[in-house]
Design goal:
The structure is a homodimer of 393-residue chains. Chain A is an alpha/beta fold and 393 residues long. Chain A is built from 14 helices and 16 strands.
C-alpha cells in the first residue's frame, strides 16, 4: 500500500481525494498496490466531510511520517506552498503539484532539491489541467529538437472569446457570464491579463529547451482591451481571435516567449478549440506538428493529471525522472520577431498596401500585413491611423 | 554510450537512422549518453548509403552481440518480424517497434516474453505514427477508467475523405490521387477496407482495458463503398464523414470495438482533422475528453515515436514498464450498440419519422435517426428503401 498526503483541500485537492476514492479499485489493479489518502492538510475545518478523520492542520505530521510516500501540493500560490514543498522534498518525500505559479517561479530550485534528495517533483497538472502534455513533451518527443509551442493555455479567457464570437457579446459582458458560471474569479486579473497563460508558457519553455524562462521577463498581454468589432471582422474572414502562449527557438539559439491575443486561421486546429477547453500545438523537428486537447481546468480533470503523476512516482519509487532546467535562458527580444499583423482603422486597401506590403484585406479598413517586426507594424498603424493592432499566428 | 540495431531499412527504419543522426547531439545532451546505431539489418544491398558500413544481413550478429541494448524492429508484417522479435527478447534485448500488425496480433505473447526476460517491448509508433498516444493513455491517464476511444487512425483514408469533401471527387478518383502522392499503396486494401485502423483500435483497446482484443474478432468496414453524394449531403448539413476506429466499455464490462465510416458533427474537433493527419479522442471518467492530433505516418514522425521509446528504454535500462494485457476480452456484439444512423433514399421526412423516431432531416431523402440498434436501423432502411446507411458518432 502507498500512502499519500494531500495539502490544500480546495477544488483540485478535493478532486484528487475523489479520484482516489472513485477509481480506488481500478488504480489498485493497474498499479499492483492500493493508494491510500492518509492525510489531508488544510487550515479550514471540514466537520461534515467524509474525509474528516484524515484532516490535519499541522504540516510536521506529514513531514515526519515515514509512511507518507507522496505529498500532493494543491495549496496554490508561492508562499505556504513553497515552504511546505521545500520541506517535504528535504524530508525525502516525492511531491506532485498542480501549482503553476510555484513551478514557473521556483521550479528550478525545487527540482534541484529533488535531485539532491533523489526524489521526484512532478507537475503535469500545472499546464493544461488534465491534458497529458508535459510528459509527452519531455518523454515521447525527447528525440526531437522542439522548434515552436503555441497554445490556448487558459480556459477562462477562451470561454470569454468563444462567447464574444458566438454570442456577439462584449468582453465585459462575456466576463460577467464567465464569473456567473464559476469559470472566472471575482478578481479575474491573472486570467484576463495573460498572467496565468504566461506562467504556463514559461513551464513549457523550461522543459522544451532546458533553461529557465522567468515569468517576470516574459511579455504578457491579455484580452481585456479586445474590441468585439475585431473579433467579428476576424470571424467573418475565416479567423478566430485566441489568447495564445507562444514560444519558439530562434536561429541564434535564443528563446522567444510571450502571451498575446492572435488571429488564428480556421484551417489551424487551434482555431476550433472553444469554451473552457485548452489545446497546445508543439512542433518538433522530426514529428512536425502535434496537438494536445482537453479540459484545462476543473476538479476531476486536474486531479486526473495529479494522480497520473502520483501513480508514476509510486511505480518507480526508487527511480528519479531526470527532468530539470538550468539557470539563464537567453531570451530573444520579441520586438525582433517577424510576423503578420492585423490592423483596423479608417484607411483604404491601397493605403494599407503602401504602408505594409502585400496586405490581405479582411474587410473595409481591416487588413493583415505581410510579415514584419513590431516596430514596423506600429509605425504602419500610426501612419494609417489604425485603432486596433493584433498579431496573426 | 548505448548501442541500437535497426532491423528493416524501409521508410521507418531509414527515418530512425536519420533522426539518430540529425538529433545526435541534442539526444546525447538530454539522455546524458550517446546513442549509436551499431547495425542495420536488411536483406537488400545499399552500397551507396552513408550507413553501408553498418549494414548486415545476418540477424544472429545482433542476437549475439552483448553491446546491443535496444533492437528497433521496423520490418513490418508478422513473419520474419515475429521470429526476430521473439529471438531478440529471448536474448534479453529491449525491442521497440512501429509494427502494428505484429503488436495487434502477437503483442500479448511478445509482452509475456519481455516480462519473463525483464526487458521492455514498446510500440508507441504502432498507433498514430508520431503522435504521443499510447504512453499518455497507459501512464498519464492511469488514474482514469477509460470509457471510450474514437479516432481517425489511418491517414490514407482520411486524405481520400478530405479530397472527396473538399475536391468533390469520387472515392475512386481520390484513391488515384492518394496513390500518385505516395499516400496509398498500389494494393490499398489494408487502408481502404479498414484493416489498418482495425489493428490500431485493437492495440488501443488492449492497453485501455487490459484484455486482448483480437483483430480477427473486430468488425472492420472501410470507405470503398462510400458514395460522394452522402459525403456532400453530410458536409452541407454540418457533418463530416470520417473513418473511425471506435471502442467503448459497456455497462456489463464487455468491450465493443469496430471500424466504420461515421458522420461526425463539425462541433467535434475530430471532424476538422483533414488530409493525412490522425486524431484520437479518449474519454476517461476523471479527465473527460482529451484529444491527440498529428501526423499518423511518414518517416520522421514515426521515427520520432520509435526513438522516444528507445530513449525511455535506455534511461530506464534496468526497469521494465509494467504494460501488458491478458487473454480473452469479452467482446460486446456491436449489433447491440444503440447509436444514431444516417439514411438516404427516396423517402419523405414523415415516412422517416414513422420508421425511425425523431429523425433529423439533413436534406430531402436524407435523415439522421434517433439512437437505435443496427438491426432496427437496417429494418427501417429496408422499409424506406434507403440506399445508404451510415453510423453517426
Amino acid at each position: 500500500m502507498a500512502n499519500i498526503a494531500i495539502m490544500g483541500f480546495g477544488t483540485v485537492g478535493a478532486g484528487v481525494a475523489e479520484v482516489a476514492r472513485m477509481n480506488h479499485d481500478s488504480i489498485a489493479a493497474n498499479l499492483g498496490e492500493e493508494v491510500n489518502v492518509k492525510y489531508i492538510l488544510d487550515v479550514r475545518d471540514f466537520p461534515d466531510s467524509p474525509y474528516a478523520a484524515k484532516m490535519i492542520k499541522d504540516f510536521s505530521i506529514i513531514e515526519n511520517d515515514p509512511e507518507v510516500d507522496v505529498v500532493v501540493e494543491t495549496i496554490g500560490g508561492a508562499r505556504v506552498a513553497l515552504d511546505f514543498t521545500r520541506r517535504a522534498l528535504q524530508a525525502g518525500k516525492h511531491v506532485v503539484t498542480s501549482n503553476k505559479e510555484l513551478v514557473a517561479t521556483y521550479g528550478r530550485e525545487l527540482l534541484e532539491i529533488a535531485k539532491e534528495k533523489n526524489v521526484n517533483y512532478l507537475f503535469e497538472a500545472s499546464v493544461g489541467g488534465g491534458i497529458p502534455l508535459l510528459r509527452p513533451l519531455f518523454q515521447c518527443l525527447a528525440a526531437n529538437q522542439i522548434e515552436e509551442i503555441a497554445g490556448i493555455l487558459n480556459g477562462t479567457t477562451n470561454y470569454i472569446l468563444t462567447r464574444m464570437v458566438k454570442g456577439g457579446v462584449s468582453f465585459a459582458e462575456a466576463l460577467k457570464e464567465a464569473q456567473a458560471k464559476g469559470y472566472a474569479e471575482a478578481d479575474p486579473t491573472a486570467d484576463v491579463e495573460g498572467i496565468d497563460a504566461g506562467r504556463k508558457i514559461c513551464i513549457l519553455s523550461d522543459l522544451a529547451w532546458g533553461k529557465e524562462v522567468k515569468p517576470a521577463e516574459v511579455s504578457m498581454e491579455g484580452i481585456s482591451a479586445l474590441d468585439l468589432k475585431d473579433v467579428d471582422i476576424a470571424a467573418s474572414a475565416g479567423y478566430r481571435v485566441k489568447l495564445l502562449g507562444h514560444a519558439m527557438r530562434m536561429e541564434d539559439g535564443k528563446v522567444a516567449a510571450y502571451v498575446a491575443p492572435h488571429l488564428v486561421s480556421q484551417d489551424n486546429p487551434i482555431a476550433t478549440v472553444d469554451d473552457v477547453f485548452n489545446a497546445v500545438m508543439i512542433r518538433g523537428n522530426a514529428v512536425g506538428d502535434v496537438m494536445f486537447y482537453g479540459r484545462g481546468a476543473g476538479d476531476l480533470p486536474t486531479a486526473s493529471a495529479v494522480m497520473g503523476d502520483v501513480l508514476d512516482v509510486i511505480e518507480h519509487r526508487t527511480k528519479r525522472r531526470n527532468i530539470g532546467w538550468s539557470e539563464g535562458a537567453c531570451l530573444a527580444d520579441i520586438k525582433e520577431l517577424s510576423m503578420r499583423w492585423y490592423l483596423r482603422g479608417e484607411f483604404s486597401a491601397e493605403a494599407a498596401r503602401k504602408e505594409c506590403g502585400e496586405a490581405e484585406e479582411l474587410a473595409p479598413g481591416a487588413v493583415i500585413t505581410a510579415p514584419m517586426k513590431e516596430a514596423d507594424a506600429k509605425a504602419a498603424a500610426a501612419a494609417l491611423g489604425a485603432c486596433a493592432v493584433l498579431r496573426v499566428l
